[in-house]
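Appendix C: a fully annotated inverse folding record. The material below is reproduced so that readers can follow the format used throughout the book. The structure is listed first as tokens, followed by the designed sequence.
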């Protein structure tokens, strides 16, 4: 599993590039625009071919966007799932009962391992030094003993993907490793190849 998180700021060619990434095999896109309004989220989605909506997980405006678009589901960043407190399971169920997927983020493997609520998958970061954030140092998490589907984030590109697989990650998530590359499409394809080779070797 390879997932891609959107850049926080949208440039003029992002939508075109995103369509090329979908065509290249991207099936897990995390739509994260923390500073964008609901209408700006709608405008972004309106530019995407609805064929690809089932590949999109939104980080913001989950109720509105799942009601209005046939997207895959929602992602709860750590702050957001913590805010739910004891109501988290009920909140998650309000989406899964309607057929939407719900994923979640963590920064400590212990918190992920202890999470009693069931999610489609979990993101854990930072595994390696982040490409898009120069001050974020990697922690080299080893998750082989956690029996959950975990995707590693932070410093992920074609070169670091095999090491992430060795550490027990069943998926990898990229941001800077693709969007900051000279050729984002080629960078994604190289990640695909590296992940498939490393994962097949592991099993």
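Designed amino acids, in order:
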């Amino acid at each position: 599993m390879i997932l891609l998180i959107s850049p926080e700021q949208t440039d003029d060619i992002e939508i075109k590039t995103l369509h090329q990434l979908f065509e290249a095999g991207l099936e897990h896109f995390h739509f994260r625009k923390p500073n964008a309004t609901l209408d700006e989220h709608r405008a972004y989605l309106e530019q995407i071919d609805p064929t690809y909506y089932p590949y999109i997980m939104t980080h913001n405006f989950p109720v509105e966007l799942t009601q209005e678009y046939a997207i895959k589901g929602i992602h709860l960043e750590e702050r957001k799932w913590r805010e739910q407190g004891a109501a988290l399971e009920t909140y998650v169920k309000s989406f899964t009962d309607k057929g939407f997927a719900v994923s979640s983020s963590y920064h400590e493997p212990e918190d992920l391992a202890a999470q009693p609520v069931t999610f489609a998958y979990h993101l854990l970061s930072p595994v390696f030094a982040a490409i898009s954030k120069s001050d974020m140092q990697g922690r080299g998490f080893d998750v082989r003993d956690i029996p959950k589907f975990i995707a590693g984030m932070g410093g992920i590109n074609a070169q670091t993907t095999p090491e992430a697989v060795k550490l027990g990650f069943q998926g990898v998530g990229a941001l800077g490793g693709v969007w900051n590359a000279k050729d984002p499409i080629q960078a994604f394809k190289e990640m695909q190849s590296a992940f498939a080779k490393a994962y097949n070797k592991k099993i």
